[in-house]
Design brief:
The chain starts with a helix and ends in an 11-residue tail after the last helix. 27% of the residues are buried. α2 crosses α3, α2 crosses α7 and α6 runs antiparallel to α7. Helices cover 63% and strands 0% of the residues. The chain has one domain.
């Protein structure tokens, strides 16, 4: 994921929550972008596909170049696209009813993130990042688990 996309996501999250930049950990932004790329952008591991293109597809763009071009023309499309992408991703995985809890959503985020691991070192980093996501969204710690 490029720093430009991470910066855009960070600004959107700060605006959504009314927080300062220091309050949105980079690991949270990385997890959220990764989840959309794997969970809704149909990232194709082992091909010439890249996370940035998959993330862009999750937002309804053709690829990252299309995302950059369209945002340069009208950046007001960013927030509604990200909001719709999350709703679509949750619905795709069966989490679209009124009874869906934040814990249900986090469980899906954790499952997708853990499934996107590149190997043992990445798996350890993922667990640390998921803890940061839980803390950021005010969820109680989950039981420790081995990567």
């Amino acid at each position: 994921m490029t720093s430009k996309l991470k910066d855009r996501l960070s600004r959107l999250e700060r605006a959504r929550t009314g927080t300062s930049s220091a309050e949105v950990p980079g690991s949270v932004i990385s997890v959220l972008a990764r989840v959309l790329a794997f969970g809704s952008g149909d990232y194709q591991r082992g091909t010439s596909d890249c996370l940035s293109d998959a993330f862009a597809r999750a937002l309804g763009f053709v690829d990252r170049a299309d995302l950059d071009r369209r945002l340069a023309e009208d950046d007001s499309i960013w927030e509604p696209r990200v909001t719709r992408a999350w709703a679509a991703m949750f619905a795709k995985h069966g989490l679209d009813g009124d009874a869906v809890t934040d814990e249900d959503k986090f469980a899906l985020i954790a499952r997708i993130t853990r499934g996107s691991s590149w190997g043992p070192n990445d798996a350890m980093s993922i667990e640390t990042d998921l803890l940061a996501v839980r803390q950021y969204f005010g969820l109680p710690p989950e039981e420790a688990r081995a990567p």
